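Need a sequence for this fold. Nothing fancy.
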């Protein structure tokens, strides 16, 4: 194998593994300076699957709304557990935030079970959105929809890819 091909393979491997490593390291560190506190894996976190809409290619620099749909699988997510969606820093997307609907990166989280109360925190510095289950449980089949670039509060789709 020629050296440029080997470098390309290493770069692609790093591009795939880096977000996973960052997510694993970040999961055991404090969530941020906004009082989130430590969030260690296993605190009621269950399994699940995620999908993103739109699923197709996105032009670099384009603005829009992306919905990440998480579907809980057995045993569900218990109170005190939660789900984190991470947009890798090197993608250079707008940092997710929950304070200002008109600003870039405005993000929300909706739960399919209205009896479940969740706390939503966004860390624009590390590009995370966290939904922590405060009351109730996410049962298998329940969904959380993380809307990145949400426009439902009257803002424009200002999340930048």
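Here you go.
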């Amino acid at each position: 194998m020629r050296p440029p091909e080997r470098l390309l393979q290493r770069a692609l491997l790093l591009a795939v593994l880096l977000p996973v490593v960052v997510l694993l390291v970040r999961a055991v560190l404090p969530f941020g300076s906004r009082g989130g506190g430590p969030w260690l894996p296993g605190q009621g976190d269950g399994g699940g699957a995620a999908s993103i809409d739109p699923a197709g290619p996105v032009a670099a620099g384009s603005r829009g709304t992306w919905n990440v749909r998480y579907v809980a699988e057995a045993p569900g997510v218990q109170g005190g557990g939660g789900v984190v969606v991470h947009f890798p820093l090197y993608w250079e997307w707008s940092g997710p935030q929950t304070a200002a609907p008109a600003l870039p990166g405005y993000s929300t989280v909706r739960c399919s079970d209205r009896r479940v109360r969740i706390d939503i925190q966004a860390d624009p510095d590390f590009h995370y959105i966290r939904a922590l289950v405060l009351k109730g449980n996410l049962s298998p089949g329940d969904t959380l929809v993380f809307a990145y670039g949400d426009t439902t509060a009257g803002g424009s789709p200002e999340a930048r890819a």
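For context: The helical segments are 3-27.
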